[in-house]
Design goal:
CATH topology of one domain: Rossmann fold
CATH architecture of one domain: 3-Layer(aba) Sandwich
Low-confidence stretches: none
Mean pLDDT: 96
Bound molecules: glutamic acid
Strand order of the largest sheet: 1-2-3-4
CATH superfamily of one domain: HUPs
Radius of gyration: 33 Å
């Protein structure tokens, strides 16, 4: 009896690996093309770190004319949730990170290397496991859960490394005939890898992100096929990334320490190992210490959070590239209008320790992104958000689309567009005062600044309405008239003039404009007042100014 017999007893009817090697031919891509993937488990929650990995992986594939695919790693079926795959795909779609190949819903996929869901690849893993058994590189382990527990306790008491290795790997020593006998007798077993490693020796690994790292060789006989017949992550990843033609595994750095094991698996299976790029997690600062963003504690850990706040997905993607490469910021300054695709992302420029999550920075990017949208885009996107999260805003926008477009058009589409919206949840607060009904309903409170004498204010406003305000003035005439108005009341026409001779004036044109602005909007800070007046229209401007004189 030899390993072949053992392999045949364990896997009587699986295909030979040559079948799969032929079925999934090597990809025919340009030199340097990166084939990579996002390989999440469908646990029903997409972490910002997962999106970060996808952004990096998709970018690297795209910029080298390679392939980015989505593989669902669902071999731990206890952790799975219903619709978990669709949740992931929807999140990827929202952030414009859909892959070139991979799952398209819970069951279906596109691409020539599928299925791209591990639970649908059971026979494939079994073929490769059989191959290892045949070569004497994998063996059945009959240890019971309790035995393993006991072993671990002994190791802990003796302050030894825990695990199944060396003298502890007792099923490794079971002769083939005996193993066959046990299987024939119906004893339960799992399959373990027979690690050739010696932890006294070191392996050198050159990581695409972390650089050169040394590790002791792996000597753990890890489980490759579990009792449910499904593979473990380690084994499945090696088989899949080989057959799917991955050239660079881009994944979270919690897997860095598994590299020695993974390289061993690739070697035992006779595969060429891919390159690895281990991404450091996104961190958060708390009480002066850095820690990983936590699913439990930090709402910003879930990608759904950004949609709820109304941060455009483009802004999130840009933010993630921004933390991926520190030269991104400079690139953006030099190329304010360039598409993200034009940025050249470099894995070796990624931070080795985790980047800090910075919401201020994200909102800043978001403001810039939104400032570049046309008024129609702002309208559409704000409406999509409002439909889900703010019925009042939805109504406001739908009631009079033309008017809403005018409001969004204020200071937009010019060289220095307004940058006052960071997220769609800011929109209502940002525009509500432009709606007469809402404006009066809110019972405006006028908080005057430099000029605060009510009689003076009333006089200024009345004079403005009767003597100066004309709805059809162009901007320059409009402003000249405010200067005339200022002069009438003893305020300097120019700020500079006032600064040079403060004793000659009560104030300057800016103070007078502020009074008009506050009476018009009940705010001291608004976009361009000339444009606001145009959008409001003559009747509304006059009514509001008059209302202010009576209600201040
Ligand atoms: N399923 C693994 C995870 O979610 C994937 C790691 C990998 O990308 O290989 O962490």
């Amino acid at each position: 009896m030899d390993y072949k017999d053992l392999a045949n007893i364990i896997f009587p009817d699986v295909k030979d690996i040559s079948y799969y090697e032929e079925k999934y031919p090597r990809r025919n891509l340009e030199e340097g093309a990166i084939v990579t993937r996002y390989a999440p488990s469908p646990t029903g929650f997409m972490h910002i770190g997962g999106l970060y990995q996808s952004v990096v992986a998709k970018k690297m594939a795209k910029q080298t004319k390679g392939v980015f695919f989505l593989r669902i790693e669902d071999t731990d079926q206890k952790r799975e949730i219903e619709n978990g795959v669709n949740d992931i795909i929807n999140a990827l779609r929202e952030f414009d990170m859909l892959p070139d190949e991979g799952m398209t819903d819970e069951e279906n996929y596109v691409g020539n290397y599928g299925p791209y869901k591990q639970s649908q690849r059971k026979e494939i893993y079994q073929s490769y496991a059989k191959y290892l058994v045949e070569k004497g590189l994998a063996y059945p382990c009959f240890c019971k859960q309790e035995e393993l527990e006991e072993m671990r306790k002994k190791q802990e008491t003796a302050k030894l490394r825990t695990g199944y290795y060396g003298i502890w790997a007792k099923c490794r020593l079971i002769p083939v005939n005996e193993a066959i006998e046990k299987i024939k007798n119906g004893e339960e077993f799992i399959l373990r890898f027979k690690s050739p490693g010696n932890p006294e020796k070191k392996i050198k690994h050159r990581d695409q992100i972390k650089g050169n790292v040394d590790f002791p060789e792996n000597d753990q006989d890890i489980v490759i096929i579990k009792s449910d017949g499904l593979p473990t992550y380690h084994f499945a990843h090696a088989v899949d990334d080989h057959l799917m033609g991955t050239t660079c595994v881009i994944r979270g750095d919690e897997w860095l320490s598994s590299v020695p094991l993974h390289l061993q698996l690739f070697q035992a299976l006779g595969f060429k190992a891919p390159k690895y790029a281990h991404i450091a997690p996104i961190m958060k600062e708390e009480n002066g210490a850095k820690r990983k963003l936590s699913k439990r504690k930090d709402p910003e850990a879930a990608v759904s959070y950004y949609g709820e706040l109304g941060i455009p997905s483009e802004a999130v993607d840009e933010y993630l590239l921004n933390i991926a490469n520190s030269n991104f910021e400079q690139w953006r300054r030099q190329n304010p209008d360039a598409k993200l695709d034009e940025f050249d992302l470099q894995l070796n420029k990624m931070s080795v320790s985790g980047a800090l999550f910075d919401i201020i920075k994200l909102l800043d990017i978001s403001k810039r992104v939104i400032s570049k949208y046309t008024k129609e885009q702002v309208y559409e996107k704000a409406l999509v958000w409002a439909e889900k999260y703010d019925k009042e805003l939805k109504q406001l926008l739908e009631e009079n689309k033309e008017y809403a477009l005018k409001v969004f058009g204020i200071e937009r589409g010019n060289v220095k567009p307004r940058r006052d919206i960071a997220k769609w949840s800011d929109v209502k607060e940002n525009i509500i005062y432009m709606y007469d009904k809402e404006f009066y309903k809110s019972k405006p409170i006028y908080e005057f600044q430099k000029i605060s004498d009510k009689e003076e204010i009333k006089n200024i406003i009345n004079t403005y309405i009767t003597k100066y305000y004309n709805n059809s003035d162009d901007k320059q005439t409009w402003f000249e008239k405010i200067k005339d108005l200022s002069e009438d009341f003893g305020y300097a026409r120019e700020t500079k003039e006032y600064k040079n001779n403060p004793e000659k004036y009560k104030g300057h044109v800016g103070d007078v404009s502020t009074v008009i602005r506050i009476c018009l909007t009940s705010r001291s800070n608004t976009p361009d007042m000339y444009e606001i007046m145009n959008v409001l229209g003559e009747k509304s401007v006059k009514d509001r100014l008059q209302y202010a004189t009576q209600n201040m």
